[in-house]
Design goal:
The chain has 97 residues and is mainly alpha-helical. 19% of the residues lie in helices and 0% in strands.
Length: 97
């Protein structure tokens, strides 16, 4: 490969074969040059199962992500948080509490 390429395999549903597709892509691309497979599944990272010869990093470090929490006692249902969220992760439905 002439330049680095990033390929993402994603789906919002579990059990759709994302890891299988990613592992096979990584294997096929490794024949053309160095390939890095990063399994970001927070609940079940199992890409290592496809490569028995693979090893964990010598200095594994925890990766953390801040998870927002809602405070139902302070929510007015105005929807401002949904409009402000750049990730589209907040949906306001129905009437205010």
């Amino acid at each position: 490969m002439d330049r680095p390429v990033t390929i993402s395999v994603a789906s919002g549903k579990g059990g759709t074969g994302k890891t299988t597709v990613a592992a096979h892509l990584a294997e096929a691309l490794s024949k053309r040059g160095q390939t890095v497979l990063v399994d970001l599944d927070a609940e079940a990272p199992d890409a290592l199962g496809y490569f028995p010869e693979a090893r964990l990093a010598e200095d594994p470090r925890a990766v953390t992500v801040a998870v927002p929490r809602s405070d139902a006692g302070r929510c007015t249902g105005c929807g401002l948080c949904a409009r402000a969220c750049r990730f589209g992760a907040i949906v306001v439905r129905g009437n205010a509490p």
